Amino acid sequence: MGAQQREYKKRIGSAKGMKKIFQAQEMIAAARISKAHARVQATTPYAQAITNAIASVVQHSEEANHPFLEADRTFSNRVGVLLITSDRGMAGSYSPSAIREAEHLTNKLREEGKQPILYVVGRKGDSYYRFRNRPAEKSWVGVKEEELPRLGREISALFREALLSEEVEEHLDELYVVGHRFTNRFRQDVNVVRLVPLQLTSGDAAESRLTKQYPLYEYTPSADEVFEELVPRYVESRIINILLQSIASEHASRQKAMKTATDNAETQIQKFTRLANSARQAEITQEITEIVGGADALNASGRKER
């Protein structure tokens, strides 16, 4: 019985240690959500304003023309897919759900006769594809949260060059981003956005030409030159916004996962405490039984001697 109690106490100690870790991770994630959400709120209006300005040019100008607006950009059949995952674990289904959606997207593109070219943000996604001997074309890992705007500019510059390249081996016909949309602390959904050809709608999945009415602007010097200035900013702002929404979703997902893990650790502590108490009670009962049995044996021996 003593060995059994020691085993239960060892497990209780282990569960208590894990509980402290989970609680600390939950508090850290909860503290970071507010800052991440503030960054999302700061960048979303800017991305929407650029989207509306480009949509207005498309709707009200016959001169509007840009390679990113072409519905059929078939040139190389290469399609860029940017997957956003986390660098760290303990975030529940955050990274697996994004990877699963990226796999579904790439399989669909292959069925359409296209060649998906994968780009990955985050160590989890990078490790997933390296382990399967399918490394990404380019990956970014270990990027700090405050460096995400810089990372977004770097990624958008890389994609602009590939989307406008005239080399078949480097050109990308389309660009998709697989990340998370942050709604609130309790809801985060995997989101697939096609950035090129441009989807200039209020939603993420619709046509490139709009039926919604946008303000009529006067363009100086011309709509084409306005496009040349706005389109790169549009792609950059959308990528930065998706990165920030994804990091906010990661913090929320980690908070929920750590809350669940803390509750499970507490359940394990209670379970093994009951088992340890039962084992202790059984040990005491056995000791009492042995003492009583020994006393009875001594009494019986004394009576025989008389």
* Helical residues, percent: 55-70%
Classify the beta-strand content into a percent band: 5-15%
Structural class computed from helices and strand pairing = alpha/beta
Outline type = elongated
The number of strands is 5
Distance between the termini: 38 Å
Characterize the biggest β-sheet.
5 strands, mixed
Would you tell me the overall average pLDDT?
Answer: 84
Strand order of the largest sheet: 3-2-1-4-5
Rg, please? 30 Å
Flag low-confidence runs.
201-211
Number of helices: 5
SSE order, one letter for each helix or strand:
HEHEHEHEEH
Describe the structure.
The protein has 306 residues and is an alpha/beta fold. It has five helices and five strands. It has helices at residues 2-60, 94-111, 123-131, 148-164, 223-305, and strands at 78-84, 115-121, 138-140, 174-184, 187-196. It has a five-stranded mixed β-sheet with strand order 3-2-1-4-5. Strand 4 and strand 5 form a beta hairpin. Helix 1 runs antiparallel to helix 5 (223-305) and helix 4 crosses helix 5. It is elongated.
